[in-house]
Design brief:
NAD binding; 6-PGluconate_DH-like_C_sf; NAD; 440 residues; binds uridine-5'-diphosphate-glucose; binds nicotinamide-adenine-dinucleotide; UDP-glucose 6-dehydrogenase; alpha/beta; UDP-glucose 6-dehydrogenase activity; eight-stranded mixed sheet
Amino acid sequence: MKNLAIVGTGYVGLVTGVCLSEIGHNVICIDIDQGKIDKLNSGKSPIFEPDLEELMIKNIKSERLYFTTDHSEAFKNSEVIYIAVGTPQKSDGFADLTSIEQAAIQIGLHAKRDVIVVTKSTVPIGTNEKIKNIILQYLVSDIKVDIVSNPEFLREGSAVRDTFYGDRIVIGAECQDAANLIEEINKPFQIPIFRTDIISAEMIKYASNAFLATKISFINEIATICEKIGANVEDVAIGMGQDSRIGYQFLKPGLGYGGSCFPKDTNALFHIATHEDYSFALLKAVIDVNKKQQTLLVDKVKQRFGILEGKKFAVLGLAFKPNTDDLREAASIVNITRFIEEGAEVIAFDPVAMQNAKRILPATVQFAQSIEEAIHGTDAVFIVTEWKEFIDFPLNKYVELMKKPIIFDGRNCYSIIKMMGYPIEYYSIGRPVVNENYNK
Ligand SMILES: NC(=O)c1ccc[n+]([C@@H]2O[C@H](COP(=O)([O-])OP(=O)(O)OC[C@H]3O[C@@H](n4cnc5c(N)ncnc54)[C@H](O)[C@@H]3O)[C@@H](O)[C@H]2O)c1
Ligand SMILES: O=c1ccn([C@@H]2O[C@H](COP(=O)(O)OP(=O)(O)O[C@H]3O[C@H](CO)[C@@H](O)[C@H](O)[C@H]3O)[C@@H](O)[C@H]2O)c(=O)[nH]1
């Protein structure tokens, strides 16, 4: 059992803190956001994430998990300090390292014993060295500081599961004693550990996200060609995925990738390459394809209706993916904004993300309390996130409740064969249109 501190209680900090306490460590999580810490101390998770709150309460009760805003209290007994603060995208495309630098300064000022600083945040190549230099510059106590890069691979919506059953844990370090200790801390997870140097570990994180984003943009391009030639992209993806060298995962076509990671990390890697005088042409194409893909349904609906002015649209799904309340870079934002710009009225529904959506979406968007209320009397329904609630929704309800049943499904929630049994005009991604112009 080790005494650990985690700086930042966002997705990564909180999930890491909860899971490390669950495997027996004493964990103290720090955030500068007093509201967040108050909420956490009252046993409430600030994010919607399956299994997280229950596990968090359990470990608070076992007195292995604490939350504070006080860096000095958190660092005084910690053998290891994890940095899990945000690294958002700046307007120039590079990662904003302000929070990382602040965290490093606070470690320098408040660490009181020999410490290993572990970077969980996704950071540009060379940042761990910068972190070490900042800590040493601000160091008050006479202590030894080692740095370890330990990038995080969890996904929102399955973050706890990913932490316990991940494919690998990457540990990048110069000092092998420090790497040994981080390996020991993670042993109870029983996940394969890959050890490397710091710079390679930093690159593994960006390269992994860029590769997954490439798979998504690739299948989305294939989907567009499938629509033109009359093929079904889902069958194409299955036939491709059966080749174990390709694999099934991340070949789901849709409205492109959103979220707090792929968009910013692909941009950051592109800018890292440019900074090194290398034009990463493949990644540039991945990014451009994704931008176009996110608003594909706007193109489809304009083709169907001509002008959108005066139309009433229901948007089902606001989170960037199911099982999260996160709207960062969600396709819902660009689509809804475009619909409103084109003069349409929008009524939206999401099973968990509506509170966050109300802060982000244009003020004229109306919010429904149920799928039924959202689709009632609308000219078209847009499915933007593949929540189970939408997949399980009875198709005859669209027929009953809509003005004329027309669905634009950005996540291929329904089977084409099943849809053929209903008088619904159905447009999806990379698959044949069902009942085209049926309601015209
Ligand atoms: N969200 C994910 O699914 C995910 C997965 C893997 C890696 N990552 C990476 O992990 C990092 C964190 O991502 P996130 O989504 O958890 O971030 P986030 O923005 O949701 O949360 C960051 C938290 O850090 C706090 N913070 C900022 N400066 C601080 C300081 N000096 N001291 C204490 N707290 C401070 C903020 O108040 C905030 O609560 C990013 O680099 C991200 O790219 C994210
Ligand atoms: O076949 C697919 C898979 C995903 N997506 C989209 O891609 C985005 C990202 O999805 P996902 O990867 O499941 O969620 P994230 O929580 O963003 O996780 C990614 O980003 C994290 C932050 O770096 C990493 O830790 C994870 O390994 C990586 O999967 C979402 O908009 C999905 O809709 C698709 O369109 N098709």
